[in-house]
Amino acid sequence: MKKRKILFLGESYRADAITWMKGLEEFGDFEICSWELQTPNHSKLSRYKRILEYLFSPLSIRKKIKQEKPDMIIAERTTSYGFLAAISGMHPIAIAQQGRTDLWPEGSLLLPFKKFIQKHAFKKADLIHAWGPVMTISMKAIGVDMSKVLVLPKGIDLSLFTPSINNSVKIEAIVTRSLQPEYRHDSILKAFGILHQKGIDFTLTIVGNGTRLQSLKDLTAALQIENKVFFTGRIPNTELPKLLQQSNTYISMPITEGVSASLFEAMACNCYPIVSDIPGNQSWIRHRKNGQLIEIDNIEMLAEELIWSFENSELRNQAILQNQKFVEENANYSTNMKIISDRYHELLNLHKN
């Protein structure tokens, strides 16, 4: 029997997208082809070029559909690729909201336009992915038909991200978010600067790449902690489990969050999570119960809570076990991607009749 083919609209190089596509191939026996914008989004000029490319992309996508003859179309981000899926003329369509609302940045002049195209994408979609409960709040607020919404994270590969025992007597922290301003790496470094001043020993591993790399290295030197902070640069996702297993504390301080696969990966590897106190993290973390929630940019609080977590090792160990169980029950990639794949097959069967 011929495999059913899915056209994926989105940035195919992103770890998140790779997880989605690979899961559909593995657990749904789908064949995947993809289409994405070719212009990078680095400078003002390239941003204008990208907008121009976006305006002409419906023609390019229709050409791709003619060539590949997919059975279904899926897309990430309701305000960009999701809208392109909605106007492609194809069905069934599954779209995924990536952030808490996808209406970002909040002060953007394009916000009214983004709201308009998002509404259209929601209306046209046959299935809407909310990778976590926090994403449904904005959907309900604008009257999305919630019977089309599947609230389920893609999950993480628990054969790769496995628990390890770390008996270290010092803080061995890891940050795995891209080095962009919204992830507040400078606040994290300044908090460790406070720990250093207090004579508290630690190591801090910063994984990934981004626009802030050089300025973060400069800040590390200014705080005189460069011999305790390690920048790995971009690494393959297959190397990440080992780095997480060598750490005992996971730190993530984004100013906005949808559902963080990075958090689940850290939990699966027995890292104790210390994260920003925002709705996307509040869905999974309860303060001083199974992790810690820190006010955005509150450097003193982050430093204090790091110290508190290390002084309360019994609570930390209980939290680690609890989090491991939670990830196994709720964020297992093979279980969740099978559910998602089955839903796609159901949709395809409905549209066949």
UniProtKB/TrEMBL annotation:
Pfam families registered for this protein in UniProt: Glyco_trans_4_2, Glycos_transf_1
SUPFAM superfamilies: UDP-Glycosyltransferase/glycogen phosphorylase (SSF53756)
Glycosyltransferase subfamily 4-like N-terminal domain segment(s): 51-128
Domain Glycosyl transferase family: start-end pairs: 172-324
Coiled coil regions in record: none
Listed name of the protein: Glycosyltransferase
